[in-house]
Automatic annotation (TrEMBL):
This is Hypoxanthine phosphoribosyltransferase. The keyword Plastid does not apply. Purine salvage pathway enzyme that catalyzes the transfer of the ribosyl-5-phosphate group from 5-phospho-alpha-D-ribose 1-diphosphate (PRPP) to the N9 position of the 6-oxopurines hypoxanthine and guanine to form the corresponding ribonucleotides IMP (inosine 5'-monophosphate) and GMP (guanosine 5'-monophosphate), with the release of PPi. It catalyses: GMP + diphosphate = guanine + 5-phospho-alpha-D-ribose 1-diphosphate; IMP + diphosphate = hypoxanthine + 5-phospho-alpha-D-ribose 1-diphosphate. It comes from the Bacteria. Coiled coil: none annotated. Its main location: cytoplasm. Pathway: Purine metabolism; GMP biosynthesis via salvage pathway; GMP from guanine: step 1/1; Purine metabolism; IMP biosynthesis via salvage pathway; IMP from hypoxanthine: step 1/1. Its cofactor is Mg(2+). Residues 12-159 form the Phosphoribosyltransferase domain. Pfam families: Pribosyltran. It is an enzyme of class 2 (transferase). Belongs to the purine/pyrimidine phosphoribosyltransferase family.
Length: 179
């Protein structure tokens, strides 16, 4: 797997340090709240899990599974809800946990969905942000790192279901995904 990675953008130590910083900020803000962390599966599962261990406040965790890729490496722009929440979010703060903000379609869809369901507030916490790919107006409230417009893998991000288990964030070699 490591041979398929062109370069490492952020090491495991760098990711851990940034997650500590994000967790401190969220803990300070949500100390007296009772938010629901909503992990956007499957990519955000590692990020969400690692963040949960660092958060020092009461919370519920839930997840949604959405897709805008339909078995390709390019977003279709159409978001499909595959698995919905199991919690009622009415009058509750919601923190959407995302692996990467790319085109923005998924997060725009989820924010609107949760607002329509009466969430008290909606914030987005994303490990990565790829602003050069944005197609809709959406920004995260908390971002781990900005990344270039390249194919990013590791730390939950995949190509064809692979590379999620890399402990770092890296750029996949073009020869791997253009086969």
């Amino acid at each position: 797997m490591n041979n398929d990675v062109e370069k490492v953008l952020y090491t495991q130590d760098q990711v851990n340090q940034r997650l500590d910083e994000l967790a401190n900020t969220l803990t300070e803000k949500y100390q007296n709240e009772f938010p629901i962390l909503v992990s956007v599966m499957t990519g955000a599962m590692i990020f969400t899990s690692e963040m949960m261990k660092r958060l020092n406040f009461k919370l519920n965790v839930d997840y949604v599974d959405v897709s805008s890729y339909e078995e390709s490496s390019e977003s279709t722009g159409k978001v499909k809800l595959i698995q919905d929440l199991s919690h009622d979010i009415k009058d509750r703060p919601v923190i959407i946990m995302e692996d990467i903000i790319d085109t923005g379609h998924t997060l725009k869809y989820l924010a609107a969905l949760f607002a329509n369901r009466g969430a008290k507030s909606i914030e987005i916490c994303s490990l990565l942000d790829k602003p050069d790919r944005r197609e809709v107006d959406v920004e995260a409230d908390y971002v781990g790192f900005k990344v270039p417009n390249e194919f990013i893998v590791g730390y939950g991000l995949d190509f064809d279901g692979l590379y999620r288990n890399l402990p770092y964030v890296g750029v996949l070699k073009r020869s791997v995904y253009e086969k």
